[in-house]
Design goal:
The complex is a heterodimer. Chain A is of the alpha/beta class. Chain A has helices at 48-55, 83-90, 106-116, 121-135, 150-162, 180-197, 235-239; strands at 6-15, 22-32, 37-41, 63-68, 71-75, 91-94, 168-172, 200-204, 216-221, 224-229. Helix content of chain A is 32%, strand content 26%. In chain A, α5 runs parallel beside α6 (180-197). In chain B, β3 (86-101) and β4 (104-113) form a beta hairpin. Chain B is elongated, with a radius of gyration of 31 Å. Classes of the chains: A alpha/beta, B alpha+beta. The complex binds adenosine-5'-diphosphate and magnesium ion. Adenosine-5'-diphosphate (ADP) binds at residues 15-16, 22, 24, 42, 44-50 of chain A.
Amino acid sequence: MVGKGIHIEGLKKRYGSGDTAVEALKNVDMEVAPGEVVGLIGPSGSGKSTLLKCLGAVIEPTAGRMILGDEVIYNNGWKVTDLRALRRDKIGFIFQAPYLIPFLDVTDNVALLPMLAGKPNAEARQRARELFKDLDMEHRAKAMPSQLSGGEQQRVAIARGLVNRPPVILADEPTAPLDSERALAVIRILNDMARKFETAIIVVTHDEKIIPTFKRIYNIRDGVTYEEAGEGRDFELKYK
Amino acid sequence: MISLAGRDIMHAWGKFVFTGVGLGLLIGITLSMAGIYRGMVDDGKALLDNSGADLWVVQKDTLGPYAEPSSIYDDVWRGIRSIPGVARTANVTYLTMQVRQGERDVRTMVTGVTAGEPGTPGWPPYLVAGRQITRGHYEAVADIASGFKLGDRLQIRRNQYIVVGLTRRMVSSGGDPMVFIPLKDAQEAQFLKDNDAIRQQRRRTTANPAFNRPQVPGLLDAVIASQSINPYVNAVLVQIAAGHDVDEVAASIRRWKRLTVHTRSQMEVILIGKLIATSAKQIAMFLVILSVVSSAIVAFIIYTLTLGKIREIAVLKLIGTKNRTIIGLIMQQSIALGLIGFVVGKITATLLMAPIFPKYVLLEPLDSILGFVAVVVICILASIIAIRAALKVDPAEAIGG
Ligand SMILES: Nc1ncnc2c1ncn2[C@@H]1O[C@H](COP(=O)(O)OP(=O)(O)O)[C@@H](O)[C@H]1O
Ligand SMILES: [Mg+2]
C-alpha cells in the first residue's frame, strides 16, 4: 500500500482556536509519483504555503495522513521523532528566492547539506560538482552567490534541493523572479532531475508561463484540493 | 563539516577587523589600566626595596613616613643603634616638592640621606651613571625619570645642587622620581623660611620680654639660634643584624623608645592597602566600566550581525541544521571578535600605550591571561542575546506566506 513519492489523504490544518480559528486546509488529497512534477495552484490565501509547511514538517497538521517516500510521517500525529533529520534527509526545498548562504561559495552552499548529514567534505563537494554538471553550472562552482545572476542562483538552489537525493522536493514559486526563458529552463531541469533521481516534486506556482508544462495540476481552493489534468506541453523542443 | 563561523568571518572580514580593532583599543586601555595599578604597587615595593631598610621607625602612632607625616628627633638613631639586633641605622627625610632646573620644574620626592658609604639605609642601592654623594652639601643623585642629567644644577629652595649621579626606578609611592641630597641640606630645605620670615621672627623674638632679658646675656642669641635649626627627621631606617628576628627587634624598639616601628610587611600593607587604596578602587571601577562597555559592544555587533542573517538561519534550520551548529556559528564569531580585540589590545597596550604613560605601567603576563579569559567569557555572554534571537527563528519563515 505504501508506495514511493508523496501520498496525502484527508489532511487538515487549523490555525488558532475558538472564534479566531482559521481552517487553512480543510481536505487535502494528493498523490505524486516518483519522477513526477506536479503543479499546485490556487488563489492567494487558499492554503498553498500551509500545505508546503505541513509537508515540509515545519508546522504540524491537525489531522490526516502524509507519506513521504516509504515512510508514514504523519498519521493524526507525527510518526517520526526527529523532524530536523526528516527535513534534512527526505525533503529538498526550493524557494521563491534562492536564499543561498552568502558567505559560502556555490559548491559549499550545495555541499553543506550532505556535510550536515555527516558526509565527509570531499564526498559532499564531489556530489555538488556532479549536480553542477547536470545543471550546466560547473564553470561557476567556485563563485560566491553574490557574483551569480538570478537564474544561476536559482540553479544553485535547485542543486541544494537535490543534493541529498531526497524522495521529495517542495518548490515554492521557484520561477517567480525569472523571465520566461529562465523559468522554463528551471522547470526543464526539475523534470530532468525528477526522472533521473526518481524524485516526486511539487511546484507551487501561479506563474502563467509554466502552468502549461504540468501534466497534472492540483488546484487548491479554500483549503480543498481538486485534481486537474494539465496541458503537459513539451516545451523542451520549443525552447531548447 | 566546514566552519560556518570561519567562512562568515572571512566573507565579512572588513567588518570583523574594524570592530575588532575598536574593541582592541578598549581592551588595550583595560590592560593599561591594570598595568597602571600594577605599576603603582610596584612603585611602592621599589620604594621599600630601595630604601634598604628592614624597619621604619617613625613618630608614635603614625603611619609614616610615606603615608602620613612623621617627625622624630634626629638623634634618636643613637638609642636605636644600641638595641641588640640592630646592625645599622640612618636618618631619612622625605619632602615632595617641585625642583627647579633652569626654566622648568619637576615634581620629585627630595630625600635626605645621612652621610656614609654606599649601602647605608636610604641610599640609592645602585646608580646608572655618575657617582654617589661624597660631599656633605649641595650634591644630588637624581632618578633618570626626572629628566635631569649629570652636571645639571638643581634649585631646591634657596640652594643649588649639582647632579653627580643618576638612578633608575627610584620613585615615590606616587610615582614621582626621587632626588637624593645630604640629610643636613634636606633638613634645612624642609625647615627653611624665606629671609623676610626670618627677620620677622627675629624681630618678634627680640620684642618678647621673656626672651630678651638684658640680665641674662646670651639668652636671646641662643633662642634665635634654636629657632633656625631643624632637629627633626621623618624616620629612622633600621637594618637588622643577621640572625635576628625582625619582629623581636621591632618590639624592643617600640618598648624602649616609645616610637612606632613598621616592618617591611607592615609597610607594604600601609602603602598598598592604604596609600594607593583609593587609586586602586578608581582603577577597579574603570575596569568594571570598560568590561561593561566592551560586552555591550560585542553583544551589539554580534546581535546586529545575527539579525542580518535571520533569513539564512531560517534556511539553515529548514534544511536540518542542528541548533548546536547555529549556536556555534554565533558564539565562534563572538569569540573570534574577542580574539582579534585581545591581540590588538595587547599590542596597543604594550607598544603604544604603556610607553607613553607618564607613570610606570607594569604589564604582568598573569593580567594578560586573566584579561584573555575575561574577554572570552564576556564574548560568550555577549553572544547569548544573539543566540536567543537565532533560536527563536522559525524554520517555517524560510517558506514564507
Ligand atoms: N500562521 C498563521 N496563523 C493564522 N492564520 C494563518 C497563518 N498562516 C496562514 N494563515 C491563514 O491560512 C490561510 C492560508 O494561507 P496560506 O497557506 O499562506 O495561503 P497561500 O500560500 O495559498 O496564499 C489564509 O487565510 C491565511 O490567512
Ligand atoms: Mg503563499
